[in-house]
Amino acid sequence: MINIGKVNTLNIVKQQDTGVYLDGGASGEVRLVDKKLPENCEIGNALTVFVYLDSEGNLSATSKIPLAQVDDIAWLKVVSLNYVGVFLDWGLPKDLLVPFSEQHHELEVGKSYLVKVFLDDKNRIAATTKIDRFITDESLDFTVGQKVSLLITDKTELGVKAIVNNTHWGMLYGNELFQPLRKGQKIDGYIKQIREDHKIDLILQQPGYGKVLSLTDNILNQLKENGGVLMLSDKSPPEAIYAVFGVSKKVFKQAIGALYKQQLISLDKAGIRLI
Prior knowledge:
Layout: E1 7-16, E2 19-23, E3 29-32, E4 46-53, E5 59-62, E6 73-81, E7 85-89, E8 96-99, E9 112-119, E10 125-128, E11 147-155, E12 159-164, E13 168-173, E14 186-194, E15 200-203, H1 209-225, E16 229-230, H2 238-245, H3 249-261, E17 265-267, E18 272-274
Parallel strand pairs: 3-5, 13-15
Antiparallel strand pairs: 1-2, 1-4, 2-3, 4-5, 6-7, 6-9, 7-8, 9-10, 11-12, 11-14, 12-13, 14-15, 16-18, 17-18
Helix pairs in contact: 1-3
InterPro entries: CvfB_fam (IPR014464), CvfB_S1_st (IPR039566), CvfB_WH (IPR040764), NA-bd_OB-fold (IPR012340), S1_domain (IPR003029), WH-like_DNA-bd_sf (IPR036388)
Domain S1 motif: 69-130, 143-205
GO molecular function: nucleic acid binding
């Protein structure tokens, strides 16, 4: 089954002067529009392609993969406008349309916006800035510790809002952030907790004891590489700890506490030493 607006893996079934054609199953043949054909472009071979409808409503494919596919939310730049709407650069030769009816407010050329990519009632690919109708604040579908894909959106007094797996809102709290984040950035994160009101709290470091275990090995390796001394301690600034180990100060303190109990390190105000 062909998934319009998404990446598909299709077999080459025909090569003619008019081009290369792929097997679209019940949907029929799909024409490959690339002027420069991909490598190993021979009958029977499988190609990974992005499928869409051309201006005449025919199934077409390209080996170029766009910055966003149908159902994705992405941070895309406006490159032009006309009487039907504005057009976004999404990495393909034909720009992505945001109709005027799908704009919260007037969009400006040269600026970037968060948009949701969708199929209209004629299976044409378009985008909308009205993303709230696609995203919910509440969830019972996630589990604590689950790894998720995050899209960074707006800063708030509490921290930074993020879209989780293109479907839900979540919150990264400022006191647990130890790296700069920018609007539109895609980054992996974890479910910290599902609150009583079913809202999602997020964290960038993997929660739980498993994270501490992997960090203890990293600390021991760093100590061995630095002659048994590391100028970091539980008194060090969170930013300094994150710069070296990419974890919060809380997680770092748990790890060195575990190593101290095992009598593998000694602690002082300046740092830690390998025993």
